[in-house]
Amino acid sequence: MPASDSDRSPTARRGVDLALLRQDTGVQLRTTPATMRYVLYALVPGTLAYALLIEARILFTVVIAAIAAMAFEALALTLRKRDVIRTVSDGSAALTGVLIALSVTPLLPVWQLIVGAGIAILLAKHAYGGLGYNPFNPAMVAFAVLLVSFPADMSHWPGKADPANETVWDTVTAQTPRDRWRELLREQRHQHMDEKSLSSASAKTDDTVQLVAVGWRWSSVALAWLLGGLFLLWSRVISWQAPTAFIVTLALCHSAASVFGTTAFDPSMTLLSGAALFGAFFIITDPVSGAATARGRLLFGCGVGLISFLIRQFGSWPEGLAFAVLIMNSAVPLIDRLDTPRHPR
Amino acid sequence: MNTLPRIQGGLALKRHKPGLNTPVVNLSRPRTLVFPLIGYGGTALQPRVRVGQTLNCGELLADGIAASASGRVSAVEARPYAHPSGTWMPSVVLECQPCVTANTCESSSKPSALNLDLLRDAGLTGHGGAGFSTAAKLARHAAPSQCQGLIINAAECEPGIACDEALLMHFADEVIAGIDALIDWLQPQQTLIAIEADKHEAIKCLHDAIANKQYIRLQRLQPIYPSGAERPLVDLLLRLEGQPRLRRDETPLDRNRICLNLATAHAAGRIARGHAITHRLITIYGDRPCHARVAFGTAIETVLADTGNSPRAGDRVRVGGALSGYDLADISAPVTAQTNALSVHTAPSVQPSRPCIRCGDCISVCPVGLQPQQLYAYARSADDKGLDRQGLDHCLACGCCDIVCPSEIALTASFRHARSRRHADRLSDRDAQLANTLHDRHQARLEREQTRPTRQTRPTTPSEPIAADGIAAALERARARRKS
């Protein structure tokens, strides 16, 4: 018997000894908190672009939402008698808060933002058992609840992004830029069809110029999201399947629709405006509520793309991503079930 | 040959093969050798020897366990054995003359061609780790003459284990002699040695040894863990031949492929040359990494002390590698044929795991195409149907999913647990079914006896009281019958 038997660790166990493996081979893989940190880093360029080009208040709302989400997480963990420090510090709650703030309009009243964070953390996450067990994307649940509860405030988007303009807070339209586009292009089409007077058409031209400017700004933000997304792909935090399937499906649907002449959007505009790229890389890549396998992720991305196209095209909401994600979230158990490993039996 | 066959899943781990640069240490054989009476899968074995009996080297102590020295059985008693639980097991204790080397066996019989009985009598078990009886494995093979492929598994993918590599580097000729003996017996259509391409030194030695043997082919593999696992390896080789993979209920033998570990083939060669299975090569990793020839039955404590790797207070001793091995609770446990590596390391802190975030990393590394995270969910909820659908039985317990899991979940341990639980459930189901059948039969018999009263029950009916002379008459009849 060894002399030091009494002070030997009683956890003599069988199985993988990660610490020893690391010591021997130096293999060091990314942990869950690191994954969350990477996603937060990837959001930096898009957020900065957003703040510079669209609305500086976004920086304020992002911080508020992150703090609120972490506070709600700490509350839920205390109530559930879990390790508060360890879990809050994994960054998942902060990420959820940031994603909510970036999804909703930056002009949303702060109390509504906090309500959204509470819904995401308490209702969508901890009511189901916390990190890893939520069937729905918490940020999108919060978005949907806020959209349904406060439709007016939620569609209060910054319209004039001109920094020189003193009335930054004063929005020209009560719709998202995407919504404005739709309205405008519809009118133009009607004019083309009706061959109405030239004067009314020229009256719209100013508006178009302004909208093109807004479109340019939003497109820049979208490209900044793309930059962050490429970083995530490169660092292998996310896999390519879901974003690619989503973007391709969306582009194909819109191209087909424009060929048949039933849409107001052209595909490039579709991808560079609204939430498409942000959603592609930061929303539908949520691993917990998304499909787990490679094929499942392709299917999931396609589904989200198709449903959000249908909502944009035929539904009454200007932006269909949140509902599309929630609908596909509910289909994930089925998708996972479809793609079970096939072994020769 | 230039392009290596693609391996499904797995992980490219940094090469960590300690103790290859030093010459092989020949450890002295201690006075006392201990042989735990444990067979494949932890089954208890019946000893074939009695206390006080003197034995010759190579005689069987039990099925699959040969004495590694001549000596006297001093006891059959519970002793610690190499197992993470630290429980003791009935073991044969052999007192012998100490010897300066591990492999000097006083008695060696004449060389002979290999056959099943020879292997069985020599007590050869697989040196890879599972410890299945080689004779039993080959006995399952329906027709030895129809062997299509003899696969010698020299792929040793786990970090920290290098005993097969050392065997090739120092004893390549002996290994090839063993393979030749197997070829003579099994007459395979082709023979190949599977080895990872990054074992340059070993491959060079192997090349030299098979230079004039065209019938042995070298199959290089990508150095990706777990390339040495038997089933995926055979699947891979079948794929190269354009054949379908193994079904779940098939073993390589069902496809006429015989897959043996390199060290097992080496041991078979020793048997063919008339030697007994007395020792093996073990990787020892501690203060002085080395490879040592150790007699079976030597206490691990002694092995470590003799090679200058004694653990300090607080150190842990592990059998096997970081992935498939286990920590010893008691280092006085003896070395067996399955002990491939010993390592002494300091106790690192084990972090508690975090919840699964379904990232899917485990799915992409699984060498047999399972979805560990789904399996884990089913294992936690003890959903047997789900476990079956996800193919729990295919799991190799290689630990790749544990390595990549960002939440550091002990996935493999949970699969092992689910497996043993299901095994226990199946056994208790079988017992319950047996009890049911017996009960039904009992009931049926009782009913039968009630409906068709037997002769003994008739006289006891109260309507016919037994008369005293009736008994006397019966006794008379019985006597008369006995006489005639």
Question: What's the pLDDT, averaged over the residues of chain B?
Answer: 85
Largest sheet of chain B: 6 strands, mixed
How many angstroms does the end-to-end distance of chain A come to? 47 Å
Strand and helix order of chain A: HHHHHHHHHHHHHHH
In the CATH classification, which architecture of the domain at 104-280 in chain B applies?
A: 3-Layer(aba) Sandwich
Q: Count helical runs of chain B.
A: 13
Q: Structural class of chain A, please?
A: mainly alpha
Low-confidence stretches of chain B: none
Helix content of chain B: 25-40%
- The ordered string of helix (H) and strand (E) elements of chain B is EEEEEEEHHEHEHEHEHEEHEEEHHHHHH
The number of distinct structural domains of chain A comes to 2
Main features:
heterodimer; A: 345 residues; mainly alpha; disordered N terminus; B: 484 residues; Rossmann fold; six-stranded mixed β-sheet; four-stranded antiparallel β-sheet; globular
Summarize the structure.
Chain A has 345 residues and is mainly α. Chain A is 66% helix and 0% strand.
Please describe what this structure looks like:
The complex is a heterodimer of chains A (345) and B (484). With 345 residues, chain A is mainly alpha-helical. Helices cover 66% and strands 0% of the residues of chain A. Chain A has two domains: 56-154, no CATH class; 177-338, no CATH class. Chain A has 15 helices and no strands. By secondary structure, chain B is α/β, with parallel strands linked by helices. Among the domains of chain B are: 104-280, 3-Layer(aba) Sandwich (Rossmann fold), CATH 3.40.50; 351-454, no CATH class. Helices cover 33% and strands 17% of the residues of chain B. Chain B has helices at residues 116-122, 134-140, 163-186, 200-209, 230-240, 262-272, 300-306, 361-365, 372-380, 384-390, 400-404, 411-451, 468-483; strands at residues 25-26, 32-36, 54-55, 60-62, 65-66, 71-80, 88-96, 149-153, 190-196, 216-221, 257-261, 279-285, 290-295, 315-319, 326-327, 341-346. In chain B, helix 1 (116-122) packs antiparallel against helix 2 (134-140), helix 3 (163-186) runs parallel beside helix 4 and helix 9 (372-380) runs antiparallel to helix 10 (384-390). Chain B is globular and about 100 Å long. Classes of the chains: A mainly alpha (345), B alpha/beta (484). Chains A and B meet through helix 1 and helix 2 of A and strand 15, helix 8, helix 11 and helix 12 of B.
